[in-house]
Amino acid sequence: MKTINYIFISLVFFLTSITLFGQSGMTIHGGGAVTVNGNLFITPFVCGTPLTDARDGKTYNTVLIGTQCWFAQNLNVGAKILGSSGQINNGIIEKYCYNDEDNNCTFYGGLYQWDEAMQYSTKEGAKGICPTGWHLPANAEWTTLTTFLGESVAGGKLKEAGTAHWISPNTGATNSSGFTALPGGARADNGGFSALASDAFFWSSSQGDATYAWLRDVFYDSERVYQYYNNYNKMYGFSARCIQD
Fold first, then answer.
1. pLDDT at residue 174 tops 80
2. What's the pTM?
3. Which position among 34, 41, 118, 217 has the lowest Cβ density within 10 Å, counted as fewest Cβ atoms?
4. What is the C-alpha to C-alpha distance for residues 180 and 224, in angstroms, rounded to an integer?
């Protein structure tokens, strides 16, 4: 209830500001900013509205699920490198596109090794490759999401409905949460690609040890969300979602 009240108050404040400022030369910018008579004012972000990543101009839908604000699209930031290469700590965000095809990044987002997704931090809840004000979800934050949706049916509520991107039968898929999980597959630790259209793998920012980190898998033939620790090492490339700080 507090979250809903906050959003309502923020929206009223923003709309009131538009009414007042519109009489004195207001220009609206993307990313929650307005210019009034040459002065820049930052307006509050309301979850459920699109967010523009200032780093590259890409826009992501957002969704409020319970008390958490999530990206409703897979993150697609960085310079593409080939799946045969490892992502390295060189000050440049690097991504894989499934089968090295740019269109797959456009549709499904980039794939990232855990260290790259974390931007070489091991701190749980690190910002990683997310925009400012957002971070890679910790394992506990993923659990909060699936518990809220219902453990036995959370996958169905997260998956995009239909078979435009998921292979049949896409069991239980309703996307009633608005999360719109897409099956971006994986870049394996040997450089190959697999599981496009069947699995949506998502990193968490919680590591188990130097080799493994916690992750989630949403599967085409199940309504559940699977939690893994030591099935896939950090060298795999998986999708990334951001959650608001």
1. yes
2. 0.84
3. 41
4. 15
Q: Are residues 18 and 71 in the same domain?
A: no
From its phi and psi, is residue 146 left (phi > 0), alpha (psi between -120 and 50) or beta? alpha
Same domain? For 108 and 57 the reply is yes
Number of folded domains that form the chain: 2
Query: Each residue of 122-166: pLDDT tens digit?
Result: 999 999 999 999 999 999 999 999 999 999 999 999 999 999 999
Say if residue 126 is in the same domain as residue 207.
yes
What is the domain extent for residue 18? 2-42
3-state secondary structure the chain: CHHHHHHHHHHHHHHHHHHHHHHHCEEEECCCEEEECCEEEECCCCECECEECCCCCCEECEEEECCEEEECCCCCCCEECCCCCCCCCCCCCEEECHHHCHHHHHHHCCEECHHHHCCCCCCCCCCCCCCCCEECCCHHHHHHHHHHHCCCCHHHHHECCCCCCCCCCCCCCCCCCCCCECCCCEECCCCCEECCCCEEEEEEEEECCCCEEEEEEEECCCCCEEEECCCCECCCEEECCCEEC
Q: Are residues 76 and 189 in the same domain?
A: yes
pLDDT in tens, 178-230: 999 999 999 999 999 999 999 999 999 999 999 999 999 999 999 999 999 99
Same domain, residue pair 10 and 131: no
